[in-house]
Amino acid sequence: MSLDIFWFLPTHGDGHYLGTAEGARAVDHGYLTQVAQAADRLGFGGVLIPTGRSCEDSWLVAASLIPVTQKLKFLVALRPGIISPTVAARQAATLDRLSGGRALFNLVTGGDPDELAGDGLHLSHSERYEASVEFTRIWRRVLEGETVDYEGKHIQVKGAKLLYPPLQQPRPPLYFGGSSDAAQDLAAEQVELYLTWGEPLDAVREKIEAVKAKAAAQGRTVRFGIRLHVIVRETNEEAWKAADRLIANLDDATIEKAQAAFARFDSVGQQRMAALHKGRRDNLEIAPNLWAGVGLVRGGAGTALVGDGPTVAARVKEYAALGIDTFIFSGYPHLEESYRVAELLFPHLPVKRPTQVEGANYVSPFGEMVANDILPQKAAQS
Asked: Where is the Luciferase-like domain positioned along the sequence (predicted)?
């Protein structure tokens, strides 16, 4: 089975260390362009663009990067309760057409009640999922060319329709991640690809089996993906040193403050992430080569695969054996780490890579030449 490997656009900030301004990097349009173009040229299938008040707007970021990329797909956030499903359908169709069919959509119900209240959304966890189901039913049908009348508990539309269809037919794929029972019910009914954050194999297997069963009960099948950070180096020792360095400037007060902020979330996925490390630095390797250090101060995806290329590839293949075909990776800083992942990990995986980027001036893959007409030894022998 070939794998789709995505990268991540750090619209919330980037740098060499977590939880500190030391080694931080300014994230402007020029830098996001660098990361997106690197991902495009290196063979990543797409990029996830995060959402929330700490991030630049994912739709505008994606639109701004269409002209400077060629093959890269953009996984953009849909926010039920914050926007009308019919307006979101028009935006989705427009982005899909303007990008030449490179738009993907990630349904995000949200997990921080304070942030949601700031956006005018005051529903409980269960009510948000009710509204998300209604939103998605309308969004999907409108994009697929129907004229929709819908009378729901939270959303009502009459004569909703789309005059300019998306390029991808019947519509662009819908991704979604959530760990609660309500989230799994939504995934089983509505989405093409269910995402999980990086948990140990048994926990991920349990989620996949639950969603599979619920989807089968509705006569549907769902694909699966996973969101992970990656710290890959030429040796395992170097990789673990890089993991330690990433949190080298964290103090206990910063960890405590971050964990207190995450504790207010009503997201089951966030609660599961926090349970992996319990806010402590010791014993962060929670499964072979699965490290929970990122989650000490970062909300959302908080685990990383750590090791050399063959070791990390072996862990990836274990997840793939569960039925996962899409991996959304990231690493700090995102520009440099995109190259490390492509150069050190891709050769050990069955990666589904797009064809060569048009117009790229590809030079010899042999490295620096030591003299005219002399190839490095390995290249000459091959």
From this structure: 5-325
